[in-house]
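Batch 3, record 17
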Amino acid sequence: MQTVEKLLLKAAFQAPGGFDLYDLHRKFRLSPAILFQTCSDFEQRNIITREGMKVSLTNYGQQWVLTNRKKIFFTSTREWTQPSGWYFDEPRDPYMPYLPKLGLIDRDHFINLLRGSD
Amino acid sequence: MTTVTNRERIEAVLDYDTFQRALLIVEKQPWLASKNERFNELLSFCSQPEEQNLVLDIVERYTYISGLELTRSLEQIAAKITNDWKCSPHDSVVVAMDRGRHADSSAAIAWFLKPILGDLADWETNQFYKALGEAASEVADGGNIVIVDEFVGTGQTLSGALVWLADKLKSHKKTATLYVATVAAMEIAKLKDLSLTKDFFATIWLKKSIQDHYPPERIMPLESLMLGMEDRLLKKDGYMKLSKYSLGYKKSQAAYFFENGNPPNNNFPIFWWKRLADGSRRRPLTPRV
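Prediction for the assembled complex:
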């Protein structure tokens, strides 16, 4: 759902008697063409009615907004902002043996340790 | 947090009346919705409400030829050719009003007319030409040449084309009756000497967008207002000088757009000039090459 659609439906839902489209323009600088287009789409679907500058939800529109409240009122989850799952793997028991990834092991680690002990 | 995209928002906050008017105009001129960002940029380009009002006045009376309207126009032209001018495929050719080698909308109109005329009579594809010179050599002596175009502005090109075609016919030692049919034309074209054509038909006649729409006392202040807006455009862009197109070519003050077409230079340059005075690019309402 586009931002302009969410803003329009939120404004209509919060003002049961209707609201003035200019308020959305002034607050969010939404353009006349985009507001007109969005209103027309929702009018065709019988979700809102528009009389000049005044917009209000229809009875069906109120039900529709409630049914779709999740995508209208809540910000969608942006999964890419979350760290990957492997980051939260259970910590290993330090006394349990496990097979490490051999490719990641420094083959000279122990040799270097011995040399260091010389 | 609510993020409004650039596509959805306008740079300038409009006053209540201007916003209300813009909304009504989008309702009246639905093609503006598809040019939302360009329309926003045009409104933001205006520096004062008076400029916005003038721009909205002109946009409100813009003649926009959609695909559906083009169909209607082509049918009217075909009916004119067949019923009124009595041009038949046996004695007539249809030709685009073009003498150059570059792509031109007149050739598109000739092409669009093929199936419509073909539906009315037995027109063949070899009776439609894309260059005037071809018509002169192909028309039968004593026949008809129907010159077609999409738009006639001042009539200067048309007048020149008629003289040129008449000379060509002379050089071929032929006579032919010339007719002109166009989708749209400006009324100022009627002032030109078009006596070489037997009839000149346009499906839409356009007036000057300022001069022919306001009372005399308002014309000069409004033209000055428009010139003030033109001052914010680049004076010379490539080989084109803005002064040549000030208030539209030959001050023709047109407001016309053919859907998906290249708008005429008769339109006010604020609707098609590509650069602002500082040289930066702008997105005009109806871009033009």
